[in-house]
Amino acid sequence: MSGKLILVRHGQSEWNKLNLFTGWKDPDLTAQGVEEAKEAGRVLSEKGFKFDIAFTSVLQRAEKTCQMILDGVGQSDLETIHDQALNERNYGDLAGLNKDDAREKWGEEQVHIWRRSYDTPPPGEEGESLRDTGARVWPYFMTDILPRVLRGETVLVAAHGNSLRSLIMVLDRMDKESILKLNLGTGVPIVYELNADSTVKSKEVLGDMSGAH
Length: 213
Description:
The chain is of the alpha/beta class. The protein has 7 helices and 6 strands; from the N terminus they run βααβαβαααβαββ. Helix 4 packs across helix 5 and helix 6 crosses helix 7.
């Protein structure tokens, strides 16, 4: 019995639009972000998806995206589990800063390392690298999400660029160099079908990732 796992990065947030490091800060969706979330719901509805359960972070940009997708497939009241294990990577002292301003302050190379290295966290004791993010996302996935997929359920996960990248890294068996080049589009569903041993049977991206950042 093959289960399905649908991963969706939240729609554009106000801070995405302003080019700010966001992390655990909690800005709302923009009007464009709302449309992206609704479009994800429309696409999944057209494909005939019905979910058994949904998971999201405790940040409103992901929570609202999740709810709009469920509204779009006619499952507004579906059980939804909110957990900070699925939160975006914590950007520490960079949170709230404009990315261009950060480059001016610390230099292009240093900011690039913070943004794109696998295991170098940004400044500040709360800052997380992608490896740190995966260290909290993956155990939660293994204990709370994956067993339901393996039972044959169809599971929606609406989360964030880096929390989802840390999952995709393991699902797609990517190394730490190739995962750094992966960008996820806002509001674009990625559909996985898993085998009984949790390996990937099939993967389909329902949208355009070319403009992802």
